[in-house]
Amino acid sequence: MSEMKQYQQLSKSERQEIYLLIRKGYSYRDIARALNRNVSTISREIRRNRTRGRYEPAKAEHKKYVRRKYCKIYLKKIREYPKLEQYIRKHIKLSWSPEQVAGRWNKENTVNENVTISPLTIYKYIYSGYGNDLSFYLASKRHTRKKRKIKKTERQLIPQRVWIDKRPKEIEEKKQIGDFEGDTVVSKKGDKNSLLVLLDRYSRYMFVTKVKNKKPGRIFNEIDRIANIHKINSITFDNGIEFQQHYKLNCNTYFCHPYSSWEKGAVEYANRLIRRYIPKKTYIKNYSQTYIQAVAKKLNHTPRKCLNYRTPYEVYFNSNSPKYKNPKCCT
Question: Using alpha carbons only, how large is the chain's radius of gyration in Å?
Fold first, then answer.
């Protein structure tokens, strides 16, 4: 991992990632680790920029903008001392550089005025609305501050991601068994346990298993275990970092666009059905794997209107699908 970014301002894209990870139930520490940030940075960002108890990236970005706009201490410092402001304006018009003005002021006036000034503060004053008429007297004749070109390092939370736009037509039309949608169902805050849900788009047959945490390695191992027993041609995920190791799977993987969970609507509906038996704000750690499998079995043996009132089990195992290595593990 690269050196932690402690002093850089959070970017707009990072605020969007924070919003997504909060919605998926990640802790501040997990979010900080994903963004390569200090956990205090994430905590302060959420505390300062939430609105009515909720953190939303667009409103957080606007709050940051307003704070920076009205927190220009350098303008306040100069504007509150008319003698200093007059001194700056007089000597800049004599073609003195801001370095010369600051150096001379600090040498001659600090004893009486007890106010020091830096060249950078003078530059900022000149490039503000109060001193913009002085920019003509600078050697550069520049009217705005030159922006530094900072080489940005590319950061990918989910490497080798393929968007859902590139998903083949036969997957879109649900013409075959083996094309899945994947998601996780989170527990109450304080419980790292969650449910991994894989649902076949064609038959609506689902695999549900409890995992101790949502670390990418653990999620990959669980999906890979299921893939070694059942045929999986493709899986469509959302942008949770628990699916970070998707490229290691022996199948094609696709990702929904941010804020577009409806693009994998089948598994989202399945999650709602599961919530009837494992409600929100409950600890998943309190539910046994046996109970979870019983819930999945009940749902897999319930007729569905979209299947012409057949059950997912009937469609999944009675269609022209290949034989499986170990049918006993199926619910």
Answer: 29
